[in-house]
């Protein structure tokens, strides 16, 4: 852009000024140097610079510009066109920092949906009810208008707000019969009730284990169940998801530490069946916590020693396999643990400890309740860990941020449980 911005000192403190390069006045023909001083902030001087460039038709938008840059230009140019001194800069504060700092070309529909959900979740934490539909639509329109403005400047981009239904997104926070004009929330008693409803919808109702019970449960389990239950609890996996893990789909390196949850093991009519997809219907990448990685490495060593000593004919690539199937006609070395055996182990512990359980789902529910009620982890992050793609808008469109949030959530629960 044309012109410079610089600070100067006054008796009242630092002030800022904008100074444009010399040019000929189109009316008088004389050389002038437009400028303005006395701004209290650099941002105000910057907006004046934008207005000046808009007035002489030199305001452009770069494809590498952030949403904040383009939005600021758009609002300042609108201010100039409307003949008002109001810069509208306050409107940028209504959007989250992570979205404002993203390059315009990187923003897609998933990011806008995430913004809507995050804003409403934060509002619920503070007041017990979400923002109104009209308010959230205004935010989406603020972003949408910025993309339209960029297109008028010749930037070849699409509008990621196209096709977004604020009503559909907010329906997750409100009753089906909600009067949208009033934006009445389902849970009127506060944000904790809303959070509990989200968790209950994801993992169902039933007993949960305390931190001490979780540690006692894991210590009770022998090989090969020890690593299985560590993985199942600290990753919040379903029973069949853990059983369906394979070494070839699991990377334990520090750079990756992730597993592809692709096949699940189930019991049907007394027979073990391999299902091609998890319960959610789609394969997904699960980020592994370092504690789980260590448990899997120890398990792998134990498994390899067991194979070398007893079963050189071992085949298949499952991570969690039984030592032997004495009563199974189709037994072979390396066959997966039977789901009923897993239930037998957890029932054995429950009988010894007197804990109330309703199967392996107790572990999953316990993880979710610790995350939500003890640690205050946002529900949309919990849903991502649980693999409930339909319950979150933090999709693959927001992979980098989601990965960080997921790893932080896994670490938080791990530290809470292991911290004693």
Low-confidence stretches are 176-191, 389-401
Describe the strand arrangement of the main beta sheet, using strand numbers: 1-2-5
Cα-atom Rg, whole angstroms?
29 Å
CATH architecture of the largest domain: Orthogonal Bundle
Fourth CATH level, the homologous superfamily of the largest domain: Intergrase catalytic core
CATH topology of the largest domain, which one? hpI Integrase, Chain A
Helix content: 40-55%
Beta content comes to 5-15%
- Average pLDDT works out at 79
The number of E-state strands comes to 10
Structural class estimated from helices and strands: mainly alpha
Largest sheet: 3 strands, antiparallel
Instruction: Report the order of strands and helices.
Output: EEEEEHHHHHHHHHHEEEEEHHHHH
- CATH class designation of the largest domain: Mainly Alpha
Taken together, the total number of domains comes to 3
Distance between the termini: 58 Å
Gross morphology is elongated
Please, how many helices? Answer: 15
What brief labels describe this structure?
3 domains, single chain, 420 residues, 10% strand, 15 helices, hpI Integrase, Chain A, three-stranded antiparallel sheet
């Amino acid at each position: 852009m044309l012109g410079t911005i610089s600070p100067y000192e006054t008796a009242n403190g630092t002030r800022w000024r904008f100074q444009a390069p010399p040019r000929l006045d189109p009316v008088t023909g004389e050389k002038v140097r437009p400028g303005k001083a006395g701004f209290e902030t650099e941002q105000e001087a910057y907006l004046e610079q934008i207005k000046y460039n808009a007035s002489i038709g030199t305001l452009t938008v770069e494809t590498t510009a952030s949403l904040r840059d383009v939005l600021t230009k758009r609002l300042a140019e609108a201010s100039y066109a409307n003949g008002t001194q109001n810069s509208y800069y306050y409107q940028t504060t209504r959007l989250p920092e992570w979205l404002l700092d993203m390059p315009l070309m990187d923003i897609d529909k998933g990011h806008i949906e995430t913004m809507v959900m995050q804003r409403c979740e934060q509002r619920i934490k503070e007041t017990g009810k979400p923002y109104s539909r009209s308010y959230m639509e205004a935010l989406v329109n603020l972003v949408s208008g910025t993309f339209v403005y960029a297109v008028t400047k010749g930037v070849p981009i699409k509008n990621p707000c196209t096709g977004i239904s604020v009503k559909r997104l907010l329906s997750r926070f409100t009753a089906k019969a909600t009067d949208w004009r009033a934006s009445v929330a389902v849970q009127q008693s506060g944000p904790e009730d809303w959070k509990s409803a989200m968790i209950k919808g994801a993992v169902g109702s039933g007993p949960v284990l305390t931190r001490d019970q979780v540690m006692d449960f894991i210590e009770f389990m022998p090989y090969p169940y020890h690593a299985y239950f560590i993985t199942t609890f600290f990753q919040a996996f379903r029973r069949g998801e853990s059983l369906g893990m394979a070494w070839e789909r699991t990377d334990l390196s520090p750079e990756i530490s992730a597993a592809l949850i692709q096949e699940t093991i189930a019991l049907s009519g007394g027979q073990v069946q391999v299902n091609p997809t998890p319960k959610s219907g789609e394969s997904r990448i699960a980020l592994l916590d370092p504690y789980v990685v260590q448990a899997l490495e120890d398990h792998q060593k134990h498994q390899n020693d067991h194979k070398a000593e007893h079963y050189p004919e071992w085949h298949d690539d499952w991570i969690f396999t039984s030592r032997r199937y004495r009563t199974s006609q189709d037994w072979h070395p390396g066959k997966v643990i039977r789901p009923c055996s897993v239930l037998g182990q957890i029932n054995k512990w429950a009988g010894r400890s007197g804990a109330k359980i309703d199967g392996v789902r107790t572990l999953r529910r316990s993880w979710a309740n610790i995350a939500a009620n003890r640690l205050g982890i946002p529900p949309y992050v919990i849903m991502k860990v649980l693999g409930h793609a339909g319950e979150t808008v933090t999709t693959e469109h927001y992979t980098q941020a989601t990965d960080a949030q997921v790893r932080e959530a896994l670490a938080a629960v791990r530290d809470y449980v292991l911290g004693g």
